[in-house]
Amino acid sequence: MRIVLVGPPGAGKGTQAAYLAKNLSIPHISTGDLFRANISQGTELGKAAKAFMDAGNLVPDEVTIGMAKDRMAQPDAEGGFLLDGFPRNVSQALALDESLKTDGQKLDAVLDLEVPEDEVVKRIAGRRICRNDSSHVFHVAYSAPQQEGVCDTCGGELYQRGDDTEETVRRRLEVYHAETEPIIDHYKAQGLVVTISALGKVTEVTKRAMEALGRDAA
User: Fold this and answer.
1) Which of 119, 141, 151, 199 is the most buried if burial means most Cβ atoms within 10 Å?
2) What is the pTM of this model?
3) How far is the first Cα of the chain from the last one, in angstroms, to the nearest whole number?
4) pLDDT tier at 218 (50, 70, 90 boundaries)?
């Protein structure tokens, strides 16, 4: 299957993408991984992306599109892929459509993870990270530490990242509504969008997604 995964920040796209890719036996292609791989390998696209990022600018669509096309052309993606974070706007969606058409391929579905805005804010703004080890993550409502402000694992100080504040999260949501959400209408016109609720346990959401895609969860 060839799938695009969309949803607002805090919808759990990365988590669901990993589970869905495993269940469907297709590679999970995320924008973040594309950038890291190209930059670390020193590709021309990676060098171009790094130059923009180092200058504090957004990476142009054509660079992101180039990376995505290169990745989708790799052997492990011949039987399908799950795109996470790409396309992020209608311009990229149109480029993806054209690229797939050129290769005689098409998308099977666009999976839209739906989460109420207040829940997104609650999920992200409630996160607390350990200063000693960023892999130690807690949540004031869903997985609170035994002692407030102290990591259960190593005793380190827990803090809220600057981009996890409510104000920042709401700004990120505004960007999502303005830039990314329009791709849902773009794909609805093609009859590709499948919308599911991303509320509940991770396994519940995965099962819901697999059923929406017409597949059984492993």
Assistant:
1) 151
2) 0.88
3) 16
4) low
